[in-house]
Amino acid sequence: MSTDKTTQALSKQPEQTAAVHEVGDRPVLAPPVDIFENEHEYRVLADLPGVAKQDVGLDLDKGELIVFAKRDVVRVGEGLALERREGDFRRVFRIPDEVDVTKVEASFEHGVLEVRLPKSERTKPRRISIKAVA
Amino acid sequence: MFTQLFRVADPYHDLRHLQRQMAAMFDDLPRARRRAFGPAIDVLDEGEGYRLVADVPGLRPEDLEIDVTEDGITIRGERKPKAPEGYSVHRREREEFRIARSFTFPSKVDPDAVDATLDHGVLTITLAKRADAKPRSITVRSAA
């Protein structure tokens, strides 16, 4: 699979990183992500500052990975500077077929979510040795 | 002599020129430079003190430097997300950033009563106002 093709497959919303969508009365932010790949796995990292571990959700369904997190920006008092954007986080990725969805793992540290998506054994490239015909 | 006169006749000439130069300068700022303005910060006046909240995902306590005086605060920190070795990159949206922000508070704070915590990528700093800067309620006596 070529690099370009994989990128398209992995990111369903390529240009919507900064977009804010309203769902009900809570705005939804698309978190910035990094996506890496080697021969064994894909790694997806997402910035989710201010989210508690138990409020981070990951859904794998119909070839899609959905990352979502509930975040509350609570402010008391008079605002002298208000830059932090309010809203929940949500982003959807299309997962390449080669990913073994039963082995997906995730960790969350310092407000950064990391998802590891291993490729299934049977789709890994194999080198075939050529036997000399005796 | 006449040239001199005409130039004086347009008193805003120099100002306009400067304005154009400034505009050009800001347009030319590369994207990376603009990003360096860094993460989003809230500053709140809670009456008894101030609260400063900054989204700094991926930062560890040792990545941050905070200086407080009785007039204000300076926060410094840097994040350089690295691509893991041996991986190809499909998407790089998590930005490098450098925080170098100073705030001057409208009233004096007590530099000895400052608390800073880092939790799930959010830095929260609480500062107590100096006793003589706290709001006081005055009871009005009846003159009778």
Distance between the termini of chain A: 35 Å
CATH architecture term of chain A: Sandwich
Largest sheet data of chain B? 4 strands, antiparallel
Q: What share of residues of chain B is helical?
A: 10-25%
- CATH class of chain A reads Mainly Beta
Tell me how many strands of chain B there are.
8
Q: Uncertain runs of chain A with pLDDT below 50, 5 residues or more? A: 1-9, 11-20
CATH fold group of the domain at 36-133 in chain B: Immunoglobulin-like
Radius of gyration of chain B: 24 Å
Let me know the average pLDDT of chain A: 81
Task: State the order of secondary-structure elements of chain A, H for helix, E for strand.
Answer: HEEEEEEEEEE
Q: What structural class is derived from the secondary structure elements of chain A? A: mainly beta
What is Rg of chain A? 19 Å
How do the strands line up in the largest sheet of chain B? 1-2-8-7
| Main structural class of chain B | alpha+beta
How many structural domains does the protein architecture of chain A include? 1
Please indicate the percent range of residues of chain B in DSSP E strands (runs of 2 or more): 35-45%
